[in-house]
Design a protein that fits this description.
heterodimer, A: about 190 residues, mainly alpha, Potassium Channel Kv1.1, Chain A, 2 domains, 3-stranded mixed beta sheet, 10 helices, B: alpha/beta, 16-stranded mixed beta sheet, about 25% strand, F-box_dom (chain B), F-box domain-containing protein (chain B), ubl conjugation pathway (chain A), Skp1-related protein (chain A), SKP1-like (chain A)
Chain lengths: ~190, ~375
């Protein structure tokens, strides 16, 4: 009860102050753009929300699309899963025109999804969301021993690294030998 | 006897955690810049632990954190503690990342879980405690402290901000190496706090004559029966809390000091203070700007200022409530031999009726 009362009372005095402003400066209709991921599902996003993404913002800043043109040409992000793109779009919509809070607790807890989200956010260059995601990744190993960190983050041991390095060297040597043999054959 | 249900519960929880499938995150598949960002967002304790996972990750950490600055607050006593604060501290309150070092003995050998390697020590028992940080247990925990700080300096940009030395908790043989090690920090240590009531005369003389601290230095030890001559302290901001061991010569040997406070200085007689004041006037402490003498006893102002020409402060604003200038308010001014102006203040006690016990001396140096 009290919350609705407060809500109405706080909303009431706001009206007269906002009305003259809107009368003075006519509101520019917000433009929308369309994006789709790997699943081809198209998401409608406002230009304001897309400002979070440096990549998309750079693409649309000089485009001057009309509503029809934007609808006809959705931005394809074939390397991003549909559900991940949905997550990113939701985040951009939620934080449209707002100062970003110091922490965001709505990020996915499943590590597989978080990995895809980090890659998508890095690709789309959404700086704030990338910081939250990286913080979430960093928090995974809080209070963990080196062995546990190795297990969680799938880090090879020194021996495994050395073996992989040897293998790579061997492969490179073989490839080089193959190339020289082929070159000698061509010369003949 | 039945099994303790509480312990049983904890054991069961631990077993369940072990059984639970560990969700994995392939951090090495992230783009380099993102991975570096993740590392930079980690706590120093986790950064250190991450660098322990492999040689390759050690290099990665070094590359990612070389510009990340932390301020080191070291505590040396029975337990050594290295606390790393962000450089914005104390302006912005922050919890430090703590590394603690404790002697490994029968008492502390309680289930240290995992081993870490630091410098030349390949296997150190260590365990992480949520609130208190990462504990290292070793027979020579002082050596481990040195090695770990060197390792942290290798990984990050560490600035040595503060050291608190509790000499009574440190073994006598470690006093000298500790001071020698502290002297190796090229940028010096900004704040040094030294405590100790039962330090041997020899160790304390060694400390005071060799410690190269050029900034703030505080001595809180009671040091019974201590004697030293000379006292070549290099600190510019000095406070000695118990000065019963000091002589007038010791005071006049502090040539580098800009500001100092002598606490509990009741052993000095009024004539001693007169001698110190006259020496200041003749230029004995060339850099001194402010002295706070905490006498904690009644004194004779006339004896302290004997043979010194003083001019009493005579400001209308100060004495507006009195018929004539009050001797306890405003202080007195005097000339130094080099022409600079000096002032001496006899502080009022907050409680009326009690004698004023503190004296302040200011030298107004145009070049200070």
């Amino acid at each position: 009860m009290s919350s609705t009362e407060q809500g109405t009372s706080s909303a009431a005095p706001a009206e007269p102050t906002t009305a003259p402003e809107s009368a003075a400066a006519p509101e520019v209709p917000e433009s929308f753009y369309y994006v789709h991921g790997k699943d081809k599902v198209v998401h409608k996003v406002s230009a304001g929300a897309l400002q979070h993404s440096a990549l998309i913002h750079g693409m649309i800043s000089n485009l001057g699309y009309t509503e029809e043109q934007a609808k006809a040409n959705p931005f394809p992000f074939e390397n991003i899963d549909g559900d991940i793109l949905q997550m990113v779009v939701d985040w951009c919509n939620q934080h449209k025109g707002k100062p970003t809070p110091p922490e965001d607790t709505n990020l996915p807890k499943q590590k597989e999804k978080l990995f895809d989200l980090v890659l998508a956010v890095n690709y789309l260059e959404i700086k704030e969301l990338l910081t939250y995601c990286c913080k979430q990744v960093a928090m995974m190993v809080k209070g963990k021993s080196p062995e546990e960190i190795r297990e969680i983050w799938m880090i090879p041991t020194d021996a495994e690294d050395e073996a992989a390095e040897k293998e790579a060297k061997k492969r490179a040597g073989k490839e080089a030998a193959g190339e020289t043999a082929a070159a000698a054959g061509d010369a003949k | 006897m039945s099994e303790n249900p509480e312990n049983g519960g904890i054991q069961k929880c631990e077993e369940n955690i072990k059984k639970a499938k560990v969700e994995k995150f392939p951090i090495l598949k992230l783009p380099d810049l993102v991975r570096e960002m993740v590392i930079r967002l980690m706590d120093p304790v986790e950064i250190f632990d991450f660098s322990q996972t492999s040689k390759r990750m050690h290099k990665t950490v070094k590359r990612s954190c070389r510009h990340k600055t932390y301020h080191l607050h070291l505590q040396a006593g029975q337990i050594y503690q290295a606390a790393l604060y962000p450089p914005t501290y104390p302006g912005i309150p922050a919890e430090p990342a703590r590394f603690r070092f404790q002697a490994l003995n029968d008492e502390t050998e309680r289930d240290p879980k995992y081993d870490r390697h630091v410098g030349s020590f390949p296997k150190i028992h260590a365990n992480f405690q949520e609130e208190k940080g990462l504990y290292f247990f070793h027979k020579s925990h002082w050596e481990i402290t040195k090695e770990l700080i060197a390792e942290l300096q290798n990984l990050m940009n560490i600035k040595f901000q503060q050291v608190r030395i509790f000499l009574d908790g440190i073994e006598n043989r470690d006093h000298k190496p500790l001071i020698e090690w502290l002297n190796t920090f090229p940028d010096g240590i900004k704040f040094s706090y030294i405590y100790g009531d039962r330090v041997s005369n020899e160790n304390m003389v060694d400390l005071m004559q060799n410690y190269q601290c050029k900034d703030t230095l505080r001595f809180y030890g009671r040091l019974r029966g201590f004697k030293i001559d000379p006292l070549p302290l290099k600190a510019t901001d000095l406070r000695i809390d118990h000065t019963h061991w000091m002589t007038v010569e010791n005071v006049l040997q502090m040539e580098n000091v800009v500001a100092f406070k002598l606490g509990n200085a009741h052993k000095f007689t009024d004539i001693d203070y007169n001698t110190i004041l006259k020496a200041i006037i003749s230029g004995a402490l060339p850099k001194m700007v402010y002295v706070h003498l905490e006498l904690k006893r009644r004194y004779d102002r006339d004896v302290i200022c004997q043979d010194i020409d003083l001019i009493q402060e005579n400001s209308e604003r100060l004495f507006s409530r009195y018929d004539k200038p009050h001797p306890d308010i405003g202080g007195f001014h005097f000339n130094l031999d080099n022409g600079d102006l000096g002032s001496i203040f006899f502080y009022m006690n907050a409680r009326p009726g009690l004698p004023s016990t503190d004296i302040g001396i200011i030298v107004w140096r145009p070049d200070a």
